[in-house]
Amino acid sequence: MDLVNSLEGRLLFALCQEGRLNQAALNLLEGADIQFRRQNRLDIALVKNLPIALIFLPAADIPTFVGQGRVDLGITGWDQVKEHDAAVRANPATASNPATGPGLSGCDMVMELGFGACRLQVQVPANGSYNCSLDLVGRTIGTSFVNLATDYFAKLESQSTGGAPHNGTLHTKIVELSGSVEAACALGVADGIVDLVESGETMRAAGLMAIDTVVESTAVLIRSHAPSNPDMIDLITSRIRGVITAQKYVLCQYNIERSRLSEATKITPGKRAATVTSLDDGWAAVSSMVKKNKIALVMDDLSRVGAHDILVLDIHNTR
Ligand SMILES: Nc1ncnc2c1ncn2[C@@H]1O[C@H](COP(=O)(O)OP(=O)(O)OP(=O)(O)O)[C@@H](O)[C@H]1O
Ligand SMILES: O=P(O)(O)OC[C@H]1O[C@H](OP(=O)(O)OP(=O)(O)O)[C@H](O)[C@@H]1O
Ligand SMILES: [Mg+2]
What we know:
By secondary structure, the chain is of the alpha/beta class. The chain contains 9 helices and 15 strands.
């Protein structure tokens, strides 16, 4: 089958080829019942049960494909979207989507996805002489986020000259590195770096410390300004939102004497309201969605007001 021709009429949805966001994004698709089989080494997979094709791309390229309207939807890091925005601002000709016009990056954020949280941070040797970002002005910075780093130091340079407009020449040298950025300082390639930090383990292992945050990031669903099939986008968005909500909540069920029902439902008010079923002997059974990260406290409080048979169940999906 000619795979490229079979894309006709399908909504194109870009996912990270591999790396940090790949598995979590695939789990979301599974929860949203988007079924596909990816053949070995193929970067395109047709969805079996919906008119969608999945395109597997590097995280950094997804905003370009979505921004230019070549792909309708995408999952990538917010850091990558901001880097793309900064690249388009620096070179408006790269925004070649006729629907958006030059100068606009063309990606709309649909929602945060609740995984891939990290921070793009300015880092320097922990035992060195740089203590704040201003100390790095005029020095060499290693990064994969060249455009965000350029914007960051351009702003800093114009501040350091008393707010005078930046004259277009950056005194700080930005060196593009494609990975293992943390090695740059120790090996003398850079004085400081701008790179991602999650736990901080990589940074500390390299003898670095963070002195500022450029972008707070999380995985996001993005869409192009003029998608080929807006109804299909709405359908996928609502399915994904259902999966994400389900991941944040658990279902809490318990039995309680009717006389204490109002106290108990104050503890578990539910998303809209708790479901209450009357039992024979002056008792009621209650079922309610509770935020996963609050469930232990909620169970403590329910026991305190006399709830019995408290059960906590996972929710697979919700609308
Ligand atoms: N340590 C991390 N913790 C959480 N999210 C991260 C982390 N590192 C990266 N990310 C997120 O995942 C996105 C893709 O990063 P990833 O490391 O998967 O790609 P890459 O660096 O291009 O590829 P690779 O590391 O496989 O060479 C980043 O843009 C960021 O949003
Ligand atoms: O704070 P931590 O939890 O240690 O995570 C941060 C590290 O994770 C990413 O690297 P990755 O493993 O993707 O390798 P890369 O540098 O080659 O992209 C990022 O570039 C940092 O190096
Ligand atoms: Mg990486």
